[in-house]
Write a sequence for this structure.
């Protein structure tokens, strides 16, 4: 008995040492920063004070939150963030679903297609954003030049630098948030492979018997898709939405590199950067970061309360 | 024609059109990146709508300039160093940690194995402010090694989680033989677990390499000295300093993209497994 106790003790000690490096790194670079962020959000800190001792003074206040909530941009930024996050998530899932349905089944070059479709996701973000900016550029970009040369457009469209575009759709005048739409389209292009991989894996695990049985019962291909494939994909689609929503709302690089948050694309992560490193107001930046955190928690709460319950 | 036939034919046509559509939208940016990098500035300015590359006019000047005049030979070395060290540390620590979480009994085991995934929730932009403040305060910010530690923190939890899922599928019995023969736990990991886990380790290594190689935000915020720049940081610097010379930015983009795409081409199977089993933060 004593022997067993000491063995267990030994095992726990060993586990402690085996996990200590991971634990320390994650504590120091993930958990601690989040707590430190809360501390900073409650202090009037500017970037100039970084080398002083005032960082550790106990002079907490809500002044940063007053500034953040009082900013006339605050509500528009939340709306832009919502539009971008929901739009980008849904578009990437729809494109991923479409691509998965196309590639599912046998045809020559299938493996090649599958490999190619993942490329946008694994290519470095700087390379793909600069390439798209170049393609879409109103002065130098190939897309605008092609469209103008072929008569498709009368003048180039500044896809990433114009806030609104007036559209005339059969007499109806519509104002399209141009740069924001471009950024969402980019988001769909870059992240559809993620949905594609998961949906393809799920499609391949749907038993053939289901389709055979439905065929025998006289269901047409579209009916089979609607009545078998879609319900079988429901779980993976909603999980994908959860992941994409979280990662898109957290996303900073893509918009920063495409538009720097100009022309109506200022989302909450860009605002954090603007406060902290544009206005050198670290406290306000941290306060917005806390707001982002709160939104994430709220989303998770609603998601698990509602959608998961709904699905059971 | 029956409904079955009609729909089957419609689907066949739609599928062909759809695949062509996807191939174009996916491949075109990469094609354009490469083609533009081989053109001269005059060519880009005079004929911006020319989709083709004239073989006789292929021009390597952009690569030469970027490599030797804009410091990219240095950035390539830096990026390689950062990525390889991150992979080595991440795979080692995740193997040892993943083994402990799977096989050893200790208090807090369940907590450890689930809490590692919470990192998924933490946006990089939220972590960057406090880390920036702390490292500026300690005058440690502008360092490649601090950057490696940050990357390690970003990749370790996912790497550990992926390896844990894999180790759980290995039968415990094979370890007993080793333990009875007097192997230590480390000996068991080295002689039994690692050889059996080669595919999973490859997935984790590729995943970690990709994160470290592609990372932009921390490299952008932390590194000030051009000698320390990673490739991503270097491309942003270059894009900000040249206005019209897009062929330079495209050549730089090709340099940062090609290594990762080539790796992917050779190890697609492992990378896809890495992407789907651990999922990926991005």
């Amino acid at each position: 008995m004593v022997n067993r106790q000491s063995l267990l003790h030994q095992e726990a000690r060993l586990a402690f040492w085996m996990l200590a490096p991971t634990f320390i790194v994650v504590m120091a670079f993930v958990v601690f920063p989040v707590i430190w962020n809360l501390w900073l959000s409650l202090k009037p800190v500017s970037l100039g004070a970084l080398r002083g001792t005032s960082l550790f003074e106990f002079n907490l206040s809500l002044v940063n939150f007053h500034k953040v909530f009082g900013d006339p941009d605050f509500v528009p930024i939340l709306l832009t963030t919502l539009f971008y996050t929901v739009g980008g998530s849904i578009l990437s899932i729809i494109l991923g679903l479409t691509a998965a349905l196309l590639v599912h089944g046998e045809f020559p070059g299938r493996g090649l297609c599958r490999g190619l479709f993942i490329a946008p996701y694994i290519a470095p973000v700087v390379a793909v954003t600069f390439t798209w900016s170049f393609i879409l550029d109103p002065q130098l970009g190939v897309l605008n030049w092609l469209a103008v040369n072929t008569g498709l457009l009368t003048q180039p469209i500044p896809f990433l630098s114009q806030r609104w575009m007036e559209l005339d759709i059969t007499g109806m005048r519509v104002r399209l948030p141009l740069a924001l739409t471009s950024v969402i389209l980019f988001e769909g292009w870059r992240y559809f492979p993620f949905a594609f991989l998961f949906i393809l894996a799920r499609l391949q695990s749907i038993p053939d018997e289901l389709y055979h049985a439905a065929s025998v019962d006289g269901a047409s291909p579209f009916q089979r898709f609607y009545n078998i494939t879609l319900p079988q994909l429901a779980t993976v689609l909603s999980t994908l939405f959860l992941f994409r929503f979280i990662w898109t709302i957290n996303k900073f690089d893509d918009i920063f590199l495409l538009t720097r948050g100009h022309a109506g694309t200022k989302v909450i992560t860009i605002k954090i950067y603007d406060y902290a490193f544009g206005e050198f107001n670290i406290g306000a930046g941290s306060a917005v970061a806390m707001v982002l955190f709160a939104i994430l928690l709220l989303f998770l709460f609603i998601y698990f309360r509602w959608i998961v319950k709904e699905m059971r | 024609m029956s409904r079955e036939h009609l729909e089957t034919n419609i689907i066949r046509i739609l599928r062909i059109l759809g695949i062509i559509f996807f191939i174009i939208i996916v491949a075109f940016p990469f094609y354009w990146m490469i083609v533009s990098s081989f053109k001269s500035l005059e060519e880009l300015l005079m004929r911006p709508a020319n989709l083709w590359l004239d073989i006789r006019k292929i021009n390597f000047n952009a690569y030469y300039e970027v490599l030797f005049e804009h410091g990219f030979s240095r950035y390539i070395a830096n990026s390689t160093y950062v990525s390889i060290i991150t992979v080595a540390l991440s795979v080692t620590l995740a193997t040892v940690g993943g083994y402990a979480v799977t096989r050893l009994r200790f208090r807090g085991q369940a907590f450890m194995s689930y809490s590692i995934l919470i990192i998924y929730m933490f946006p990089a932009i939220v972590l960057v402010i406090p880390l920036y403040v702390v490292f500026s305060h300690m005058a440690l910010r502008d360092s490649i090694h601090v950057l490696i530690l940050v990357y390690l923190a970003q990749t370790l939890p996912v790497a550990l989680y992926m390896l844990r899922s894999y180790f759980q599928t290995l039968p415990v019995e094979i370890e007993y033989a080793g333990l009875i023969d007097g192997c230590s736990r480390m000996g068991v990991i080295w002689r039994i677990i690692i050889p059996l886990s080669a595919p999973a380790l490859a997935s984790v290594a590729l995943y970690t390499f990709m994160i470290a190689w592609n990372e932009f935000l921390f490299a952008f915020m932390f590194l000030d000295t051009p000698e320390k720049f990673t490739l991503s940081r270097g491309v942003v610097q270059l894009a900000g300093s040249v206005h019209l010379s897009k062929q330079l930015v495209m050549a730089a983009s090709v340099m940062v993209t090609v290594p990762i795409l080539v790796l992917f081409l050779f190890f697609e199977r492992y990378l896809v497994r890495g992407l789907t089993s651990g999922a990926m933060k991005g």
Remarks:
- The beta strands of chain A are 164-169, 172-177.
- The longest helix of chain A spans residues 2-41.
- The radius of gyration of chain A is 25 Å.
